Amino acid sequence: MGFAEDFLPRDEIPTPLQEPLAQAWQRLQESLEQADNLASINKQELPSESWQALSNSRRRALARVVSISTFALDTLARYPNWLAELDAVGELDEAPAADTLRQWLDETLEGAADEEAMHKVVRQFRRARMLGIVWRDLNRKQGMEMWDTAAAVSRLAEVCLDAALGWLEAFLAPRWGYPQVRNDGSSQRLVILGMGKLGAGELNLSSDIDLIFAFPEKGETQGGRKSLDHQEYFTKLGQRLITALDAVTADGFAFRVDMRLRPLGDGGPLVGSFAMLSSYYQDQGREWERYAMLKARPVAGDRDAGAELLAGLRPFVYRKYLDFGAIESLRELKGMINREVRRRGMQSNIKLGPGGIREVEFVVQAFQLIRGGRDTELQVTSLKTALKRLPALGLLPQEVVDELLPDYAFLRDLEHAIQALEDRQTQTLPVEEHDRERVALALDHDGWPSLMAQLDEVRERVRGHFDAVIADPEDDIDDTGASGEGLSLAQWRLVWRGELDQEEAQALLAQAGFEDPAKSLKRLHGLYHSRQVQSMQRIGFERLDALMPLLLDALSESQIPDLALARVLPLIEAVLRRTAYLALLRENPQALEHLMHLCGPSPWIAEQLARYPLLLDELLTPETLYTPADKTRLADELRQSLNRIPEDDEEAQLEALRVFKHAQVLHVAASDIAGTRHLMKVSDYLTYIAEVILDAVLAMAWKNVTRKYGTPEGLAAVGEPAFLIVGYGKLGGIELGYRSDLDLVFLHDSDGKGSTDGPRSIDTPVFFTRLGQRIIHLLTAVTPAGSLYEVDMRLRPSGNAGLLVTSLDGFIDYQRQHAWTWEHQALVRARVVAGDPALAERFSALRGDILAQARDEKTLRDEVVKMRHKMREHLAGKQDGDTFDLKHDPGGMVDIEFLCQYAVLSLAHETPALLNYSDNSRILETLAEAGHLSDDEAKRLREAYLAYRSRVHRAALTGEPAKGSKRDFEEHRQAVITLWQRFLEPDAA
């Protein structure tokens, strides 16, 4: 068969292919002639005839494959009939499914009588499949990508592992039997975890497969001639499995196996029980092993048991908090790689060299290690999947991912082209001109210079993104400090460590803007020499020691560095045993800036951060830190957070609720301090947070109680709580503050008859009482993240002596027949904050009916005034000096609230619009619109109310009492007192 005449016209061969194809074709011709001779003797179809039957497109594809890949050329020269076989089953165009591969291999293995025969089958099967993979990779159909090739290789490795393991188990069973069943009665097999690129499902063309072997429980084998301890049995089985894939025979090898990622590496046992592995990773697991376990995935053997094992190891891999200490470990690991690259002159290694494959992997895995415990979407083994999820989580800009994905694919394509040459595991660029041109051809470049130009561009981009994520933060700070004008980090380090004499250290602090340098220096030295710091473990102290110069540099930028230092140091002390937070601050200098900006003016924020250090995470995203979410976004964020947690893990859900609440309140406080939110908006946002949490808590409580007791009769078809949570006071009035508790009343829509339909049936009234108790428990229970809210239920019918949960009909009857005037005053500020919408409409209508009742004017006024005087006696401040209690003194906030409540109760029957609102500001606006107040009077009351509330809010943030100077508020006080006397105490005017 001639080159041009009989197979492929020369003018159909691209010029770069002609010379390598000519060399390849001579060898193929010789192989085909030998195969034809053998086939002729055996009276079989001649292989050359099947080659001649190939279409022109197949011939061109063949020319490309054998010109580029020596592995493919060697394989076809050795097995020329495989080309027709692969073509017949469509394997040259599409990758076979895993089930198909497994069926093919199992059928072939049935004829293997011993391990030598099994080895031959597995190797030839792998080689044939790899020929198809290389063919498809070099002749990609439209839409095919590197990821498809990587997935096909991974799938092949898994099938070979599983089939070889199954064959070995059956082959060895007569001798040793099978493992003893587990304690739960289920069978027990070897668990094979794929690590690295196999675990990710992204193997390259000639990759080692990194494995860890495990077995569930100890015991002894049964049913064989000799019983073995499980440890011994699984070790022997694992050794034979490795040989089945890794040993080099006349047929080559199947897959090189690397077991060094197991506990203690080559010095550790080949196989470990689940208990042993769990104990090892909990007690001895190192940072690089967390990095390795990111990719762990059950790939063969008992996959369900493998998933069980990995679920137990997940807390080791993914921390609950943001673990910026992982960046230090990755930085150190990359430093070791860089040193090795330089020592061995490996700059041309596209995996380990600068801007190479490993740097893209480090970028993605840094985010997985740091945030995977919180953002569970990142708990995936695939680099591609994880990288694509980073923008939605706000961790990388979309444009960065849009560069990294194709750049990584290019690097992996180049890696595949290099490995396709000889089926050899290498990531080093070839040096031979002939090989270089073949690699360039594989990637459709005109020549080597063109390919190298693209590689240089890709490496530069990758290195830039790698540095942005992994680089040491001190590299970004000028030696003269963050501002470029202050002290250097080296000077701050000397101050922190006490390595300067006292006068010199104080002079440097004074130079940096500290007003009382002696006191601040004493604070720093007190921390440095404290028992807590001196007893820290090495890694913890190193993190603290690296952070403190950066912290002091950030403090020097504060307007009040002395005060900011005093407020921040308790936070540092609080996290000395949770050093991941020290790493977080050290790795994110901008977080330090926000910390100074918030803690300087607000000891309350400093106190919250010290109590709940996990809130430090919020400092990393300034775009949300100073922009509280509206109710829709809050509900969506909370729903997403809870959806990441198993529905039956109520403890974790509670923790997530508390973290959510503290974080969202911090956002509101940050925007408040920054002056980006009006007072009314601050209360709106705080109220939204409470409402969203109450919605979630009601849903959780309903699921918990119905799971235990079933649903009350008549409500089973509803599927949702026929239940209301009514907010009173500041919650009802949409005026929540930072320290506000929740005044709540629980109502249900039931006649109180019947019982629940669950296995533990209880009477309907008991069911709703249990539901109310559960809600209160969820709101007030203390977890490591604190509690959600303090709850006050005293405004329910009959107060503490009444039922915890009341039917709506019973509530209305009480309000009509038995309620005191002060309880109707409270009802003015009542509104539904969670529960069934239809039931909420009924409540609102009935509330309106009660408040709109015509009342005797004098009686109403006397009772309101009497209640107000009673409150003043118990709560108002002393009426001396210049101090003014903003809430309770005459002319204060409560007077305005009573005025509004009195107005609604006395005027709603003729002005129904007053029933529309529960907040004082809009009640005052409605009074003006209806002519009951002049515009000026309503404006003066609103201004006074807002001024008082603003000072109270500020006092909560600064830790000051809710008081003011009578002189400062004289105009507001007089306006309120004048209207109070006009409407409620005309005889005193």
UniProtKB/TrEMBL annotation:
Residues 488-989 are annotated as: Adenylyl transferase. GO terms for biological process: regulation of glutamine family amino acid metabolic process. Residues 1-474 are annotated as: Adenylyl removase. Its EC number is 2.7.7.89, 2.7.7.42. Keywords: ATP-binding, Ligase, Magnesium, Multifunctional enzyme, Nucleotide-binding, Nucleotidyltransferase, Transferase. HAMAP family: GlnE (MF_00802). Involved in the regulation of glutamine synthetase GlnA, a key enzyme in the process to assimilate ammonia. When cellular nitrogen levels are high, the C-terminal adenylyl transferase (AT) inactivates GlnA by covalent transfer of an adenylyl group from ATP to specific tyrosine residue of GlnA, thus reducing its activity. Conversely, when nitrogen levels are low, the N-terminal adenylyl removase (AR) activates GlnA by removing the adenylyl group by phosphorolysis, increasing its activity. This is Bifunctional glutamine synthetase adenylyltransferase/adenylyl-removing enzyme. It comes from Vreelandella rituensis. The lineage of its organism: Bacteria, Pseudomonadati, Pseudomonadota, Gammaproteobacteria, Oceanospirillales. The gene is glnE.
